[in-house]
Every structure is written in structure tokens, then in C-alpha cells.
């Protein structure tokens, strides 16, 4: 059986940055993004590392886990906003509530699937 070429998605060609502290989840997310046509340009699992990589990676989009080893990821969102980089928050918490300053931002619930992205 011959595999058909994947259909282009709205994410095709975008440079993606994955911010996730759980290695298996990060790998899964990288795979999903690549299946959707993204080039994953970097991964970070800590707030300070993610912030330092934004300037050098210059991604088009980012997926940010809200809680990185007990540390809030909102400083990463602020840095991405300053650089005009689009992002989506990801959370494993059932309600996915965001603080008032971030409620306008998109959020996806873990576990997520390709269709969620």
C-alpha cells in the first residue's frame, strides 16, 4: 500500500518552539507538529532556558506548558508577546483556567491530539 502525501495544514512551513518539561510529552508534541508541516526549531523545559532561546530561535509559533516543574510559564508568554510570536498555552489541569491577563490566549488541554493543534 502506498502512503499518500499528507495534506497541507495551516501550520505548514511554520517554525515551532516547544516548551514542555515532560520529555515524552515534548517528543510527542514535536512529532505532531512535524506531521502538521512545522519545523520544530527548539525545545525547552525550563522558564529561564525558554526565554533565553526565543531570541536566537526566532520561532513563528510556540506551544507552552503552563506549569514547568512547578514554575509558571507566564514570563515566557510575555517574552513571546514582546517578540510578536504567536503561542498556545497547554495544560494538563482539567479546568485550564488562566489568570485575567492571559484569558484572551488560546489554550489546549492535555492529552492533546493532532486535531487540537
Task: Please give a quick description of this structure.
The chain has 117 residues and is an alpha/beta fold. The protein contains 3 helices and 7 strands; from the N terminus they run βαβαβββαββ.
Question: What does this protein look like?
Answer:
The protein has 117 residues and is of the alpha/beta class. The protein is 28% helix and 25% strand. The strands form two sheets. It has a five-stranded parallel beta sheet with strand order 2-1-3-6-7, with helices on both faces. A two-stranded antiparallel ribbon has the order 4-5. Strand 4 and strand 5 form a beta hairpin. The protein starts with 14 loop residues before the first strand and ends in an 8-residue tail after the last strand.
Number of helices: 3
Query: How much β-strand is present in the residues?
Result: 15-25%
What about the largest sheet? 5 strands, parallel
SSE order, one letter for each helix or strand = EHEHEEEHEE
> Segments where pLDDT lies below 50 for 5+ residues?
1-5
Mean model confidence by pLDDT? 88
Structural class from helices and strands? alpha/beta
Number of strands: 7
For the CA atoms, what is the radius of gyration?
Answer: 14 Å
Shape: globular
From the N-terminal CA to the C-terminal CA, the straight-line distance is 28 Å
Summarize the amount of helix as a percent range.
Answer: 25-40%
Order of strands across the main sheet:
2-1-3-6-7
Amino acid at each position: 500500500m502506498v502512503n499518500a502525501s499528507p495534506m497541507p495544514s495551516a501550520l505548514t512551513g511554520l517554525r515551532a518552539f516547544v516548551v514542555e518539561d515532560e520529555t515524552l510529552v515534548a517528543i510527542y508534541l514535536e512529532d505532531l507538529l512535524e506531521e502538521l508541516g512545522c519545523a520544530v526549531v527548539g525545545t525547552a523545559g525550563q522558564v529561564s532556558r525558554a526565554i533565553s532561546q526565543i531570541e536566537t530561535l526566532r520561532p513563528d509559533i510556540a506551544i507552552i506548558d503552563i506549569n514547568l516543574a512547578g514554575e509558571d510559564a507566564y514570563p515566557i508568554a510575555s517574552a513571546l508577546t514582546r517578540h510578536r510570536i504567536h503561542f498556545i498555552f497547554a495544560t494538563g489541569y482539567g479546568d485550564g483556567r488562566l489568570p485575567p491577563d492571559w484569558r484572551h490566549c488560546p489554550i489546549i488541554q492535555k492529552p492533546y491530539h493532532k486535531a487540537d493543534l
